[in-house]
Amino acid sequence: MIKVSFKGAEHTLEGNTTVRKIIAALGLNPESVLAMRDGKLIVNETFIGKEAEIRLISVVSGG
Amino acid sequence: MGYRCRKCSGDSVINMRQHRLALCEDHFIEWVQKHAAEFIRKHRMLEPEDRVLVAVSGGKDSLSLWSILLDLGYQADGIYIDLGIDRDRDESGYSKRSLQYAVEFAQSVSPRAKLHVLDIKAVYGRSVTEIARGGMGAKRKYCSACGLVKRHELNRMTRELGYAVLATGHNLDDEAAVLMGNSLNWEVEYMARQALVLPASSTGLVKKVKPLARFYEREMAAYAIVRGIPYIMEECPFSEGATSLGYKEVLNSMERKSSGTKLKFYFEFLKAKKKGLLPNYVPPELRLCEKCGEPTGSTGLCAFCRLIERPARPVGVDTLE
Ligand code: SF4
Ligand SMILES: [Zn+2]
Ligand SMILES: [Zn+2]
């Protein structure tokens, strides 16, 4: 299982997928977030195996 | 697996689909700096000897901008306007937390660059939250008051501190969102005024530039992260429901389906403007405000002075949006 954190919330998802699919599974737009693994940025095309901890960061700020 | 850096085939940290370009950490930093330098030169934003003041909010864009300008060798200092904003509207927690990030960055570049801090409450007796509450009960009154205070004080401080140019961290998404709002309402005048460089005026408006307007917001967040610049990720409590956020969402969903949409929307606008497709923007005749001496289009007091002179409403009368 992979753990995904976004805005303080934790989500658990099935592994063996891409970052882009993980982002979409959470109902987010890949254009609006960045993904990190082990403190490093990874691209949306990265394949994620069975176990991983991913952190998503919103890049949109407004006002 | 994943995408390889186009330059060195190392692990890429970002894939910029609109440029069909994936890059590793080092090559991404190099790419951003190179294109920022070219953009600044092409649009004559800064001269090498200019003393530049960067409007710093503690967010990813303004801190990245400050860092980039210093890396490019510019003499760039920062200014933080402490607006005194917080969620419960009577404290300044959000502004204070943002300030911490600005201070932290300033310490990392000291003594090469310094940070000026202007505390609105200390100077004018009231925070922006309190000033806004004195105003009309309009929707989004906090943002209108905040925008007015920032514009006025940044112009005043740039001039009084003797800087040649004020640089702001507007990215392409910010500019595209403004353009979208103006296009939807056919605000041709505003569109004519939307520019990368606003020249100085003889009446005391300082020169203003937007060196990051060619980069996506996502790239600037990535830049701050790979450069190890901590920034405030928390949003301003008053930004909720802001129209600009709605426009950004729409633009990003179009971008998702067709990469390059935002880039094209904004750059084709700049090109169209250059070709004369919009009326020439004629700046209004400006006078100097009787009280603060800042340029203004109105007679007597400027909009800023009128705003801060309004009596404060007693707490509790505040209408929540
Ligand atoms: S969201 Fe509104 S109140 Fe908050 S900083 Fe931006 S303009 Fe000011
Ligand atoms: Zn590389
Ligand atoms: Zn005034």
Salient structural properties:
heterodimer; A: 63 residues; five-stranded mixed β-sheet; two-stranded antiparallel ribbon; 11% helix; globular; B: 321 residues; alpha/beta; Rossmann fold; six-stranded mixed β-sheet; 45% helix; binds iron/sulfur cluster; binds zinc ion
Describe the overall structure.
The complex is a heterodimer of chains A (63) and B (321). Chain A has 63 residues and is mainly β. Chain A has a single domain (2-58), classed as Beta-grasp domain (Ubiquitin-like (UB roll)), CATH 3.10.20. Chain A is 11% helix and 46% strand. Chain A is built from one helix and seven strands. Chain A has one helix at 19-25, and strands spanning 2-6, 9-13, 17-18, 33-37, 40-42, 47-48, 52-58. In chain A, the strands form two sheets. A five-stranded mixed sheet of chain A has the order 2-1-7-4-5, covered by helices on one side. In chain A, strand 4 and strand 5 form a beta hairpin. Chain A starts with a strand and ends in a 5-residue tail after the last strand. The model of chain A has no long low-confidence stretch (mean pLDDT 95). Chain B is an alpha/beta fold and 321 residues long. Chain B has one domain: Rossmann fold, CATH 3.40.50.620. Chain B has helices at residues 25-42, 60-71, 93-109, 120-124, 128-134, 141-160, 172-184, 188-193, 217-226, 243-257, 261-274, 303-309; strands spanning 14-16, 21-23, 51-55, 75-82, 115-119, 165-167, 197-198, 207-209, 287-288, 295-296. A six-stranded mixed sheet of chain B has the order 5-4-3-6-8-7, with helices on both faces. A two-stranded antiparallel ribbon of chain B has the order 1-2. Chain B has a two-stranded antiparallel sheet with strand order 9-10. The longest helix of chain B is centred in the middle third of the chain and has 20 residues, at 141-160. Chain B starts with 13 loop residues before the first strand and ends in a 12-residue tail after the last helix. Chain A binds chain B through residues 29-32, 34, 36, 40-47, 57-63, and chain B through 1-3, 11-15, 22, 25, 59-61, 143, 146, 173, 177, 217-218, 220-222, 225-226, 233, 235-236, 238-239, 242, 244-245, 248-249, 252-253, 255-256. The site of iron/sulfur cluster has 9 residues of chain B, from helix 6.
